[in-house]
């Protein structure tokens, strides 16, 4: 087996092992529902799937891919395969990218790349689509170095959608611009094009893969309206004792205090994580001089870190708010911590280079000057000094376990934060009713809030799955897309949701008059449920269970 | 030199592992904060 293939396989096995350790209970049968991670059984294609339901097209094309896969596999299995793929793709990609004749340095880098605060926090906030793009980053860099298969390497990010593609673009474009040409003019591997040609080609491919969400965004009748409040709400924050910049450098710093692993603020652990990343960056700079992608990835890291840290200062936040006010599309930079992804990649490669250097493999640096397609037999010292290398090799091997040791609470679904649960039976009954009723009319979901803490989901905050679960042909499911973060309220981007919210402020809203045939109440306090029951006193209760109540509005009230 | 450096990193990692497990064992491992607002995406 060629050395690269062996590295990829070993990385994939390690990724699968770490995925099993990290996901734990999330791999049991059922759905993991946390923050933005929403999967449903037997999803149906709807206008929402394609970003045409009124809100910004954030789930395009990720929801379409999941819906398509769920036509042939159970939804539970689709979710688990995607989560496992994040670890397998990321680990195998880094294992391929690190130039080393030995496997231990490659695996040390791979372990760091898939087991760090970035992955933990983005998992806990449920952004699997972004993580798909993150997992594909090393493969994108590898493809740029080889000058081929760029489109294939971009598929994970393209599946993820806008956030994954932007994080990938921040990495891919600098690498394409500053990629060092192969030393040998006739070398089979390596991109021999000039920098402008590479950037143009990369930009065109990136742009083509962005079309699935760019087109619906461009077709919105009211354009893209971003709320500048989101800049305050989603700016990076300090989740370690080292301030926001120190937290970002540790690859943490996500805005949401609920999306942080248990015990994350513990000082020794925080010091160890910061130290590990800094060591990785320093090793990348010092030992990676010969890497063809070294300058490009370093620039990508600087750009990514600058974006992530932009919201740290008042001036930075003001600038971002101004940009969002000018064009709502700039709101993609408000959840800025996600842009430290290239820093994670270069630190991972640095860890691998350090491990290779420690294992006394001259190839770690010598091979770095070539496209990462090195064969072990090219490295003259690989088979020598075996006795002297043994202790250092053990140390390099132990580095594989270091990322787990400095972030142990990422294990076992972040100690239970990620768990799989079944949807209540009442949800299925309600969906059958909606599907079997030939009468027209849309579906309103109450309380008119976007996030929920269902008892049946262990009280975890989750974007209401109703939009996806109750998608049936011929009906639009109207939910709110207003986002609450503490005292901050990020306004709706959906004109119909805004209209419904205005009507619901009245004492006795005419829901049938708004075009609704059904009303679902899937949460709420006792007082709220009483208020909804009062609004719907003339409606027929079709499903009545503790987890959900489905009301059918009388046809006579439908205009 | 690099070997000493690597050994130090591994030592710090082991210390971090012990400290984190001790802290979590003593303070509890509730990953989902309780008494959070019902409809919030999260808190900063």
TrEMBL record, chain A:
<keyword id="KW-0812">Transmembrane</keyword>
<feature type="transmembrane region" description="Helical">
    <location>
        <begin position="81"/>
        <end position="103"/>
    </location>
</feature>
<keyword id="KW-1133">Transmembrane helix</keyword>
<feature type="transmembrane region" description="Helical">
    <location>
        <begin position="297"/>
        <end position="319"/>
    </location>
</feature>
<feature type="transmembrane region" description="Helical">
    <location>
        <begin position="394"/>
        <end position="415"/>
    </location>
</feature>
<keyword id="KW-0472">Membrane</keyword>
<feature type="transmembrane region" description="Helical">
    <location>
        <begin position="123"/>
        <end position="141"/>
    </location>
</feature>
<protein>
    <recommendedName>
        <fullName>DUF2079 domain-containing protein</fullName>
    </recommendedName>
</protein>
<feature type="transmembrane region" description="Helical">
    <location>
        <begin position="199"/>
        <end position="219"/>
    </location>
</feature>
<feature type="transmembrane region" description="Helical">
    <location>
        <begin position="161"/>
        <end position="179"/>
    </location>
</feature>
<feature type="transmembrane region" description="Helical">
    <location>
        <begin position="339"/>
        <end position="359"/>
    </location>
</feature>
<feature type="transmembrane region" description="Helical">
    <location>
        <begin position="267"/>
        <end position="285"/>
    </location>
</feature>
From TrEMBL, chain B:
<protein>
    <recommendedName>
        <fullName>DUF2613 family protein</fullName>
    </recommendedName>
</protein>
